Amino acid sequence: MKLETLCLHAGTSPDPTTKSRAMPIHRTTAYVFDSTEHAANLFGLRELGNIYSRIMNPTQDALEQRVAALEGGAAGLAHSSGTAAIFNAINNICRAGDEIVSAGNLYGGTFTMFNDIFPQFGLKVHFVDANDPDAFAAAINDNTRALFCETLSNPACDVTDIEAVAAVAHGHGLPLIVDATFTTPVLQRSIDFGADIVVNSLTKWMGGHGTGIGGMVVDAGRFDWRGDKFPLMNEPDSSYHGLRWAHDLPEELAPIAYLLRMRTVPLRNLGACISPDNAWIFAQGLETLPLRMERHCTNAHQVARYLQEHEQVDWVRYPGLPGDPAFDKNDKYLNGMGGPMVVFEIQGGQAAGQAFIEGLELFSHLANVGDAKSLAIHPATTTHSQLNPEQQAGAGITPGLVRLAVGIEHIDDIVADIDRALAAANS
Ligand SMILES: *Cc1c(COP(=O)(O)O)cnc(C)c1O
Question: What is the value of pTM for the model shown?
Fold first, then answer.
């Protein structure tokens, strides 16, 4: 079925017990075993089923099936946040001494995790230019365990050539892990371009209404984890009665060895599980994802065109604008839709940027993206204020840069608000 249909139907069917058409929320901690044999089989992974809601929950399961279907993957695993999903995606295959090669233009929280937290565990991350697939290749060594990048970066608005980076990864026997939060499957199904593991912050456009925090890891189900590079997948797992994940699973589960390990080792024992209520919120939000993304993108496109013509604006970054550095990737990697974010440089530097934000009435000034409502922020004085001027320049943060996460309100009201704020910044 097509994406629009999967958004509404994948993972759910009318509840067999109550006939409820909408998906129930299963607020339960644990599940009754049929027999001692049933219990033993569940714990031994000889049979899959519910044990305890830190590991799985039926509402979470429906959400996981829905997102996996949307991404075209074999299975999904929900987490308490996008951040936790990224941590476990790497933690599942890396131990002290291992290395990752990552794009440098990451979401701030991910950059801090990679740059400041991972070294505490003996993991080293090499940061490279996301626009240069050869740079990924050059940074790979014997200790590299994965490549990592975002599909559409923020606030730089770079679009990564996923197919080229995946080719580099696979040429070295490595998986490509992508953060696809800014594209969602409506703009890009990263697995079609070679991604092996796709991570999403459900918090943003997938949930779509700014009402909860959650994350998802989807396993394409086709990476071969056998071999020396991945001892956690190949050596007997002392935390799971000696199971070798890449070798000992029954045939039907073997393709999702990575995801099964993630559920039964890091999720089970580190505890970053999603709540059933949030799983429900995200499954509901996904029902309208294609409609919302279409509106987010057409509104963003019009905002970008308006700003491009405005005399107070130095430059606009929007991948859907002809002439934009990412425009040549718009058709292939953004489904020709341009994306939901617009960034621009207002004349007058930091003071003008702040005055613009103060002048907005419809846009909310906050640190989030992917809400149905329009959002704005001035990165130099907020999200990136802890960086020194050189680091800010390296991350593409200029003093007058404004980031707009364009919502699904009527375009006339959005443009009127921007117009008002630009006038306020000019006075
Ligand atoms: C927000 C975000 C994250 C982190 O997700 P949370 O759900 O807030 O933990 C990761 N990557 C990107 C690209 C994001 O926008």
Answer: 0.96
